[in-house]
């Protein structure tokens, strides 16, 4: 077998990592298609993002640079959403994306709960530098956590209305 011969695809051990990445790459969706799907009300001044309902200014002469920068900065994974919308023949909508503030809150709450951080740790510049989350202060995180608990409490009360239940402690003591 010479070096210019084709690779046997049935023998996966014969495929190099570089060759396998070529098989996994998907064709790029043209920018014009992405912008048409992700933005509405295109005018000479800019367009409104379908994912967050934010107006993004963009000159017609400048192409799509500001619009694309907005997508990269605020909506990671937008390309996957566009591909699925093309495949399913549907339009992009806000419910396909997670709100950035909600995601930031979730990341910090997860860190506080799972790693036993205190709310003061959220304000620590060393910890902020070590994580890749958007910064948030402890007061904001605390307020968002309380709001989430209140919403969950209302939902649980509605679901358990008329039911009998008992609060059981598992014996773990807080220290």
Defining key terms:
2 domains, 3-stranded antiparallel sheet, BED-type domain-containing protein, 175 residues, disordered N terminus, 3 strands, 8 helices
Overall residue-averaged pLDDT value: 78
**DSSP strand tally:** 3
Instruction: Count the DSSP helices.
Output: 8
Shape summary? extended
Q: Uncertain regions: pLDDT < 50 for 5+ in a row?
A: 1-15, 19-24
> What summary fits the major beta sheet?
3 strands, antiparallel
Helicity range: 40-55%
Order the strands across the largest sheet as they lie in space: 1-2-3
Provide the gyration radius in Å.
24 Å
Query: How much strand?
Result: 5-15%
Structure description:
The protein has 175 residues and is mainly α. The chain folds into two domains: 31-96, no CATH class; 100-160. It has helices spanning 17-24, 31-38, 65-74, 78-88, 100-114, 119-123, 125-130, 138-160, and strands spanning 39-40, 46-49, 55-57. Strands 1-2-3 form a three-stranded antiparallel β-sheet. The longest helix has 23 residues, at 138-160. It starts with 16 loop residues before the first helix and ends in a 15-residue tail after the last helix. This is BED-type domain-containing protein. It comes from Phytophthora nicotianae P10297.
Give the gist of this structure.
The protein is mainly alpha-helical. Helix content is 49%, strand content 5%.
Topology of helices and strands:
Elements: H1 17-24, H2 31-38, E1 39-40, E2 46-49, E3 55-57, H3 65-74, H4 78-88, H5 100-114, H6 119-123, H7 125-130, H8 138-160
Antiparallel strand pairs: 1-2, 2-3
Protein name: BED-type domain-containing protein
């Amino acid at each position: 077998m010479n070096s210019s011969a084709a690779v046997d695809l049935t023998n996966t051990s014969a495929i190099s990592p570089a060759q396998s990445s070529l098989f996994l790459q998907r064709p790029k969706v043209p920018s014009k298609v992405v912008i048409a799907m992700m933005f509405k009300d295109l005018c000479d001044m800019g367009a409104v993002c379908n994912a967050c309902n934010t107006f993004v200014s963009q000159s017609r002469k400048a192409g799509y640079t500001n619009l694309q920068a907005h997508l990269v900065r605020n909506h990671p994974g937008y390309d996957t959403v566009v591909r699925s919308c093309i495949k399913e023949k549907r339009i992009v909508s806000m419910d396909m994306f997670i709100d950035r503030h909600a995601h930031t809150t979730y990341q910090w709450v997860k860190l506080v709960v799972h790693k036993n951080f205190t709310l003061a740790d959220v304000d620590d510049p060393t910890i902020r530098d070590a994580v890749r989350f958007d910064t948030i202060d402890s007061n904001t995180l605390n307020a968002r956590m309380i709001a989430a608990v209140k919403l969950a409490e209302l939902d649980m009360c509605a679901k358990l209305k008329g039911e009998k239940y008992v609060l059981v402690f598992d014996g773990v003591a807080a220290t």
